[in-house]
Predict the structure.
Amino acid sequence: MTQSPTDPAGSATVLVVSDVRSSVEHYARAFGFEEDFLYGSPPIYAGVGRGDVVIHLQAASTTQRPVGGGCVSLFVGDAMAAHAELVERGAPIAVPPAPRDYGLIDFVAEDPDGNQLVWGSEAGRGE
């Protein structure tokens, strides 16, 4: 496929949170992300990353979008291993892992504001 100079080369999901600093700390502690950047004092925007994924966190005070209405799907090599890691980290799991009829094993973890992170892998891996 031919790439155009105007084709997107990446993206970042932006989730609205009530407190950026505490959300960054939660994403690190519960989900294994690392702080990429903080903007503002106090922070009103931040980035956290893990593997090839970057998620941006935006303070509710800076947007009209609702807090906690976001969702991002994260594709991993082994959803069951990811689930075990997150449980060990104390991450809140909203939906436990299970094989789905769409060909994935996935589960849902939530941040303190209710934003969802769906972790999934192809069915047959980690079962």
